[in-house]
Write a sequence for this structure.
């Protein structure tokens, strides 16, 4: 698998990094129900909350939440991914938009940024900060946000690294490296559909700004929120360790 150097990663890589047919088959798409269970437990959801699912992709979490009776709006920058979500014809609402341009005003009880949720995807620190401003503005007082992100402690301790994830219909080959100066995780992912030839499959480059719990505490504070908990993948609230690849963080908008 070829490596993607920093010069080969387009600034707006996220616009083309998730081809619809391949995205449907990626290994993490097999785990939707369990992921929603975990997310709602982490946020202490009681059921019936109004949910904003940012960077929702094919809408798998939005649709599962709608099946469970939540009122859901899913947002993604890709009309092609949203076309897949809308074909399900459930009660979730889908909006094709760049999340930096959203102007929701205290309309949601919960905001989800699952499987990155576009956190740290953008071109500048200011644009990445804008994501948190959108989250805070969208939440009603007392509302909660859940982030699912690569763990910066793992990146610092273990990268560069080549690894893979297997699902029912696809094996995903991943090349990760850490840029300590910029604090960006960079690399590429190569999706191999089970039963199809490897020949001609090209790596898809990516680039994501990672944040420590301390940085996220500061960022939440800057938008009028408070970091509530950090979780391990088991769903237990625990400080992250450098042995875990990803971390979950919840934030809360205080009741004034």
């Amino acid at each position: 698998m070829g490596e993607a150097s920093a010069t080969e990663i387009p600034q707006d890589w996220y616009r083309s990094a998730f081809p619809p047919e391949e995205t449907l088959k990626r290994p993490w798409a097999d785990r939707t129900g369990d992921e929603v269970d975990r997310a709602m437990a982490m946020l202490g959801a009681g059921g019936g909350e109004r949910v904003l699912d940012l960077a929702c992709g094919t809408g798998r979490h939005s649709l599962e939440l709608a099946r469970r009776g939540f009122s859901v709006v899913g947002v993604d920058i890709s009309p092609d991914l949203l076309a897949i979500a809308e074909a399900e014809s459930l009660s979730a609402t889908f909006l094709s938009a760049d999340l930096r341009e959203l102007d929701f005003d205290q309309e949601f009880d919960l905001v989800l940024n699952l499987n990155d949720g576009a956190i740290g995807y953008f071109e500048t620190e200011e644009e990445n900060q804008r994501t948190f401003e959108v989250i805070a503005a969208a939440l009603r007082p007392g509302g909660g946000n859940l982030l699912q992100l690569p763990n910066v402690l793992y990146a610092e301790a273990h990268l560069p690294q080549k690894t893979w994830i297997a699902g029912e219909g696809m094996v995903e080959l991943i090349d990760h490296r850490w840029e300590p100066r910029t604090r960006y995780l960079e690399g590429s992912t190569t999706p191999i559909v089970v039963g199809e030839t490897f020949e001609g499959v090209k790596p898809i480059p990516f680039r994501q700004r990672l944040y420590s719990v301390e940085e996220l505490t500061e960022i939440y504070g800057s938008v009028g929120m408070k970091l509530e908990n950090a979780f391990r993948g088991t769903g237990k609230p625990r400080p992250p360790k450098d042995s875990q690849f990803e971390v979950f963080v919840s934030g809360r908008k205080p009741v004034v």
The chain is about 25% helix and 30% strand. The CA atoms of residues 120 and 128 lie 5 Å apart.
